[in-house]
Design goal:
The chain is mainly beta and 247 residues long. Helices cover 15% and strands 45% of the residues. The longest helix is centred in the middle third of the chain and has 17 residues.
């Protein structure tokens, strides 16, 4: 995560237990806050320092005109702000607030799609190309939810399945798309059934782990000129669709 991912232009309301503050991220070096009610009511533009902490998390710190110092840990994956403030009278406050975006950033700043796609690709190739059962514990949540009725639910069941795979099972990834905490990957698997199958796998990601899975499989049918000659699956389809800056 780099400073380039900081969501400049974003406006949000942060609800703490005793008050609400509106924040506008004017730049990577300036922030505007407004507290409309309560003992802290005021508005101000402050100079900030932003430090990227990784995975959609930034530390944002500033000093206010009255001498108060504030450090916010802004977590855009979980929509939480952890705030640590020292007031002019020496009181120290620790607060956690939920953020609600009221205006999006000037450019896309959500790094989850890229990270989640990499996680899913790692999982599919580790399990169904290399047959590495040990990767299940690293990549999947303990309470992993499986929607395929032919595969038992849970991480242990998946690990046992991979450990028992035939050497003929081999997965080829193709197009992969992601939005928020969801990832869909289009691929082809050989050795799973009598004929090669084209499959769409959909995963939900939570806290860097795969927590839920759906799939749809279809026997591959060779392309024919009568139907336009377009194959059901092309291993290069993901590369053909890729564009700089897209999810």
């Amino acid at each position: 995560m780099s400073i380039d991912r900081f969501p400049v232009g974003l406006e949000m309301d942060v609800s703490y237990p005793n008050f609400q503050v509106s924040l506008t991220l004017l730049s990577a070096t300036q922030l505007k806050f407004e507290i409309k009610e309560g003992p802290f009511a005021r508005n101000e533009i402050v100079d900030t320092q932003v430090v990227p902490l990784g995975n959609g998390i930034f530390a944002v710190s500033w000093q206010e005109k009255d001498g108060a110092t504030v450090t916010n840990v802004q977590d855009y994956d979980r929509n939480l702000v952890y705030s640590f403030a020292t007031l002019p009278d020496g009181r120290f406050l620790r607060m956690t607030g939920m953020m609600a975006v009221t205006r999006p950033a000037e450019r896309a700043c959500d790094d989850r799609p890229r990270r989640n796609k990499a996680l899913v690709l790692d999982a599919m190739t580790s399990l169904f190309q290399r047959h590495d059962a040990s990767a299940v514990e690293r990549l999947y949540a303990p309470d992993y939810i499986q929607h395929n009725p032919n595969i038992p639910r849970g991480r242990d069941a998946l690990q046992a399945l991979v450990a028992g795979l035939s050497h003929e099972v081999y997965y080829e990834p193709g197009l992969i798309v992601a939005d928020g905490d969801l990832v869909a990957i289009h691929g082809r698997i050989r050795g799973w059934a009598e004929a090669p199958q084209v499959v769409v796998d959909i995963f939900r990601v939570e806290d860097g782990k795969l927590v839920e899975h759906w799939d749809v499989l279809q026997d591959e049918v060779p392309a024919t000129a009568a139907h336009g000659g377009i194959s059901m699956f092309d291993p290069e389809e993901g590369a053909h669709r890729a564009r700089p800056g897209t999810a």
